[in-house]
Amino acid sequence: MNIAAPAYVIEPTAIPTLPVAGSDKLFPVRRVYCVGRNYAAHAVEMGHDPNKEPPFFFQKNPDNLVTDGNFPYPPASNDVHHEIEMVVALKSGGKDIPVERALDCVYGYGVALDMTRRDLQGVAKDMGRPWEVGKAFEASAPCSALVPAERIGHPKDGAIWLDVNGERKQTGDLNQMIWKVPEMISYLSGLFTLKPGDIILSGTPSGVGAVKRGDVLRGHVDGVGDIEVRVV
Ligand code: MN
User: Fold this and answer.
1) Does some domain include residue 5?
2) Residue 6: what pLDDT?
3) In principle, which of 51, 68, 121, 179 could form an S-S bond with 55, CB 3.0–4.6 Å?
4) Residues with beta carbon < 5 A to ion ligand 1?
């Protein structure tokens, strides 16, 4: 039998990966799902009623993840916002996953920034257009190393915060999530077939705001870890 390596007409791009804390091995990323308005206070600050909405999702591109501590200010925007979020990384998936089995799919957790071209997102909202130009641009998802759940368990409460240049801008608690981690996995799996390597950005607490070149963003999730990113 002849097992030939596949021949590509162009060189394939490498699979995006995230580092794993305390390990030389990498976590290969398949898809990046993001939950919108998952903390009540943030929904309110964006002008929405947090009580009336089922969860909704958008996606970033896996290669939007960056882990080198730099966030290059993107083109075509004058209003780029920080959103600190806990990352949920899946080691397994499926369809129609029951809430009570959803945490079995979780490999680990991390800390990320859902960087957002708020001005372009606002235009998209006003015109009923997709959000990709506001959300899924280059380097729009700075991310920490992942920490395996077998080491830290499954965080359900604890502080989540972000400092900009040493000043506290965003604060919340994981227990303020409108849709909890098992619920978001279960709900997502009714819409998409989840697979190993999928990650979910679980939403941001209130206090989002604009960044500028030179800013140092330092974020934290209790029980998970920290992220530090410089806007360049
Ligand atoms: Mn977000």
Assistant:
1) no
2) 87
3) 179
4) 83, 114, 204
Ligand 1 geometric centre to CA of 162 (Å): 13
**Ligand 1 centre and the CA of 232: distance in Å?**
21
198 domain residue, yes or no: yes
Reported residue count of the chain is 232
Distance 206 CA to ligand 1 centre (A): 10
11 C-alpha to ligand 1 centroid (Å): 33
Is the CB of residue 144 less than 8 Å from the CB of residue 221?
no
Is 4 a member of any domain?
no
| Structure confidence by residue, pLDDT tens digits, 26-85 | 999 999 999 999 998 888 888 888 776 788 999 999 999 999 999 999 999 999 999 999
| 35 CA distance to ligand 1 middle (Å) | 6
